[in-house]
Amino acid sequence: MTKNYPVANRGLPEDWRDGIFLGRIATAEGPTPIMIRDGSVFDMARVAPTVSALIAGTVRSGGERLGGMDVLETANLLSPVDLQCIKACGVTFAVSALERVIEERARGDHTLAAKIRGKIENVLGGSIGSTVPGSPEAEALKQALIGEDMWSQYLEVAIGPDAEVFTKCPVLASVGHEAVIGVRSDSGWNNPEPEVVVIAGPDGKAVGATLGNDVNLRDFEGRSALLLGKAKDNNASCSLGPFIRLFDEGFTMEDVRSADVAMTIAGEDGYVLEGHSTMREISRDPEDLLRQTMSEHQYPDGFALFCGTLFAPTQDRNEPGRGFTHKPDDVVTISSARLGTLVNRVATSAQAPAWTFGIGDLFTNLARRGLLPA
């Protein structure tokens, strides 16, 4: 993959000097957590062997200095999370809700999407975007839509009291900046989902954020919501990075709430699609999403939580009315001013590098390196 990225220092934001960032790199010894602060890169493995442990211990200092930012030029960047569970929330934006209803009504058939989209937009108008989930107004809208035979399970999680929260991929299965991302080879209607990802510690409280691509198969999920697992969890179908920006006085949850996310898809066929999402239009506050994720569950190693996306590509790529779908070697660039830039190239999940390094492998590696406490 050609290293031709718009932001210097391997995807860090322009104001990286003002923040503290956590990441992971592959070294000859094994996966190693790093911290970027004060213009230097630090090996944190002897302080805590995993990113999840660094977060649980609220570590902001220490480590062995590897050098200046030039260290990142040749580093093999991994996903910045390791033992954290990777969770995701769906249908948290009004536009996303409408597109999911379209998928459901079309039963995964992209040729029906344009017609159904027009009908739904005509019935809903602009009312859903200003509806507070779980409110009396939301319940009234639900009853009106039921009367029009337009109610959907996707609208239930869009404006009902309960958010959709699902597991995006297994622990250690996410990929990082500049890695290949995968879509199922038997999918003919799919798209990237650029999102802000909140990072929480074992107590469920947010400690920072990063960017993510919640790769989605619209045809699979559209045929049946029970196919969500196949639509969302495939080899290399979850990318995160480039780094976790930790909260501090200059970067807080308010910056997450106001984050703008831009995305470009560039195909080898000359096709270019640009999209934009803003967290200002999210229907559910990130703190509420964190609360609902933790409501009756525990995450002793913390978790990463995809907050959802406003982006739902409807621009035709080839045939009129077919909409967008990925082609091999598409380059997806996701960026946000305070979080940096995440770049990945598309392949099928079957062709992407296989996930072979699991939890057992990690602990065997850490033990061999003498990094586990006695």
TrEMBL record:
Domain Fumarylacetoacetase-like C-terminal: from-to ranges: 170-346
Regions crossing the membrane: none
Pfam family, one: FAA_hydrolase
Domain of life, source organism: Bacteria
GO terms for MF: hydrolase activity; metal ion binding
Keywords: Hydrolase, Metal-binding
InterPro entries assigned to the protein according to its UniProt record, in alphabetical order: FAH, Fumarylacetoacetase-like_C, Fumarylacetoacetase_C_sf
GO biological process terms held by the UniProt record: small molecule metabolic process
Family per similarity comment: Belongs to the FAH family.
Name of the protein in its database record: Fumarylacetoacetate hydrolase
